Amino acid sequence: MTATVLVIFGLVYLGMILGGLPFLQLDRTGIALLGAIAMIATEAVSVEQAARSIDLPTVLLLFAFMVVSAQMRLGGFYDWITVLLSALPVSPPTLLGVLIAVVALLSAVFSNDIVCLAVAPVLVDACMRRSLAPIPFLLGLACAANVGSAASLIGNPQNILIGQTLHLPFAGYAAEAATPVLVGLVLTWAVIVVRVRGRWQLAGGAAPEARPEFEAQALDRWQTTKGLAVAIAILLSFLFAPWPREVVALAAAGVLLMSRQLHSSRMLGLVDWELLVLFMGLFVVNDALQRTGVPARLVADAAALGLHLDHPAPLFGAAFVLSNIVSNVPAVMLLLPVAHHPLAGPLLALASTFAGNLFIVGSIANIIVVDAAARRGVVIDWRRHARIGVPVTIATMSVTALYLWWRMRG
Predict the structure, then answer these.
(1) In what residue span(s) does the Citrate transporter-like domain sit (predicted)?
(2) What's the pLDDT tens digit per position in 71-81?
(3) Which of 361, 207, 296, 203 is nearest to 2 (CA)?
């Protein structure tokens, strides 16, 4: 049975690395689901054990914030704020700085993926209207969304998982993450400005290929106000109330679903069900592996060789490497069992999130921005992304490592 579990686990994580499996029309979600089904079908875990392995509070919290973000998107808030920013009468470097700050703030409160999905197409057209080269601003959007999402325990899926599993205090984590995130955002802006070298305008002053303009959704003030009020109420309860986070967020999502104008099918249609299924599938696969005792033996063997994965430095390195191999959510799931250090939670959250800027495939936010740009005739290949993503990742990871080293010495 141990051999069977190892084979299934290996195939699942090979799929996480490749983004699919040869000869099969499967993405990462399909692979995780198929892996969970295989674990149950081979009786590596029973149906009851599989159900218990799923961290339901994490899944519910993730679902609830997807509903809140859907409310903001359908209310036209993201489109409105992007158009508003693009119309500011400021220089391109200043505009980039304002964009990075606003996107980071939105990503810390709402999902970074949803922010990128909503902002990217509007941003491309806004740049075209000002005859600005869109790529620096699109890469600023992707990098800022990743860095900014690390500021809170609700900014991205892996942070939600870390916060729920390790029972991290919401305000305490935000205080720990504030310095690396703020410095990281400044470094992101500086890297892009240096790499652009003053070439902010479109070559020839024209758009690359004529495309029909993206139609921004009109701002619905009532729906936007309702969404913002609910989001603020959630944050205040997380900061000051002792109630379970998943219950608060789920109740808030229920309030938003009770609408006389926005049909629930439109709201639920914007929920990333595939991500929720990915989470549940990986919970089952990882639980089956843990039951074999193999991970515990491997950690003990590594410690005997001097590599203590439960220590901060090796854990930091493992989070960075694995996040760029299997993506940050599967990497965090693998490393959480050895996250014993008092600062392991912030370390895992910051390292796995900042690592996502290295290459396009490092985070879903990057992929969303690149795909949205391609649909508007703007090509961002891996080389163009790496010119910004690699130095941004090196800079932000270095700052984070120095900050954590300082905190541990203090």
Answers:
(1) 20-354
(2) 998 999 999 99
(3) 296
Quick one: three-class SS letters along the chain? CHHHHHHHHHHHHHHHHHCCECCECCCHHHHHHHHHHHHHHCCCCCHHHHHHHCCHHHHHHHHHHHHHHHHHHHCCHHHHHHHHHHCCCCCHHHHHHHHHHHHHHHHHHCCHHHHHHHHHHHHHHHHHHCCECHHHHHHHHHHHHHHHHCCCCCCCHHHHHHHHHHCCCHHHHHHHHHHHHHHHHHHHHHHHHHHHCCCCECHHHCCCCCCCCCCCCCCCHHHHHHHHHHHHHHHHHHHHCCCCHHHHHHHHHHHHHCCCCCCHHHHHHCCCHHHHHHHHHHHHHHHHHHHHCHHHHHHHHHHHCCCCCCCHHHHHHHHHHHHHHHCHHHHHHHHHHHCCCCCHHHHHHHHHHHHHHCCHHHCHHHHHHHHHHHHCCCCCCHHHHHHHHHHHHHHHHHHHHHHHHHHHHC
pLDDT, tens digit (0-9, with 9 covering 90-100), for 98-134 = 999 999 999 999 888 889 988 998 999 889 889 999 9
- The rounded distance, in Å, linking the Cα atoms of 102 and 82 is 9
Closest CA to 50 of 369, 285, 367, 221: 285
2-18 and 273-292 are packed helices; what angle lies between their axes, rounded to 10 degrees?
Answer: 140
* Distance, CA of 263 to CA of 258 (rounded, Å): 9
The pair of three-digit structure tokens given for residue 249, joined into one six-digit string: 């967020």
Q: What average pLDDT score do residues 245-262 get?
A: 92
Q: Is the pLDDT of residue 66 over 60?
A: yes
Q: How far apart are alpha carbons 32 and 380 in whole angstroms? A: 29
Model confidence at 360: pLDDT above 90: no
